[in-house]
């Protein structure tokens, strides 16, 4: 479990393909604090640390993950958001995030508001019931509040700190991001679908 509060950025050092899997070596200033078999959230995707070498560590994404996320597009030099699993002895500053991406969205507008930024994303309208006005949404692993929610679009506001300390500064119009909808909303939608 995660909170959607990004603690570090990582840079993809290498990408290798083995059958339907992709393995990534990632450089980060938290690499030396990691341990093998630890869960780590990468742009909202929970992956297991498989190996550590100095300031780099290795993770592998299987076909299921590659098909449902933007990891299939990752390349050497890309910067990604990182968060270690939450500790149950402290505050939850964002919201409960599983690291299980529900799908992707496309950035259709990036606005500089002279002190903050607004991003508008379009997503699969079949998931419209999973997002509400002023509800929590996880975008590339970042816990945010959705507003101007429509059938297949929503907006988020990014404060300067978040812009500078996540890969939101690198997101451009047309880019694909990972989405995880609020877990409570998913349970409610599932219960209603069974009635």
TrEMBL record:
The Lumazine-binding domain extends over 1-95, 96-192
Lumazine-binding repeat boundaries?
1-95, 96-192
Which reactions does this protein catalyse?
2 6,7-dimethyl-8-(1-D-ribityl)lumazine + H(+) = 5-amino-6-(D-ribitylamino)uracil + riboflavin
Give the metabolic or biological pathway. Answer: Cofactor biosynthesis; riboflavin biosynthesis; riboflavin from 2-hydroxy-3-oxobutyl phosphate and 5-amino-6-(D-ribitylamino)uracil: step 2/2
Q: Gene3D superfamilies recorded for this chain?
A: 2.40.30.20
A Pfam match:
Lum_binding
Q: What is its EC number?
A: 2.5.1.9
Function recorded in the entry: Catalyzes the dismutation of two molecules of 6,7-dimethyl-8-ribityllumazine, resulting in the formation of riboflavin and 5-amino-6-(D-ribitylamino)uracil.
Q: What is this protein called?
A: Riboflavin synthase
């Amino acid at each position: 479990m995660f909170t959607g509060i990004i603690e570090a950025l990582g840079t993809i050092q290498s990408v290798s393909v083995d059958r339907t899997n992709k393995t990534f070596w990632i450089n980060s200033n938290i690499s030396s604090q990691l341990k093998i078999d630890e869960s780590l959230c990468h742009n909202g995707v929970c992956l297991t640390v498989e190996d550590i070498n100095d300031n780099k560590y290795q993770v592998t994404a299987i076909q299921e993950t590659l098909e449902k996320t933007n990891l299939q597009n990752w390349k050497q030099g890309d910067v990604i958001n990182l968060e270690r699993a939450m500790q149950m002895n402290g505050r939850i500053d964002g919201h409960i995030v599983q690291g299980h991406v529900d799908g992707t969205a496309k950035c259709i507008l990036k606005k500089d508001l002279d002190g903050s930024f607004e991003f508008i994303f379009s997503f699969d309208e079949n998931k419209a019931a999973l997002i509400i006005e002023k509800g929590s949404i996880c975008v590339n692993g970042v816990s945010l509040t959705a507003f101007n929610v429509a059938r297949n679009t929503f907006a988020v506001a990014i404060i300067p700190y978040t812009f500078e300390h996540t890969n939101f500064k690198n997101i451009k119009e047309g880019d694909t991001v990972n989405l995880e909808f609020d877990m409570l909303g998913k349970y409610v939608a599932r219960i209603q679908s069974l009635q």
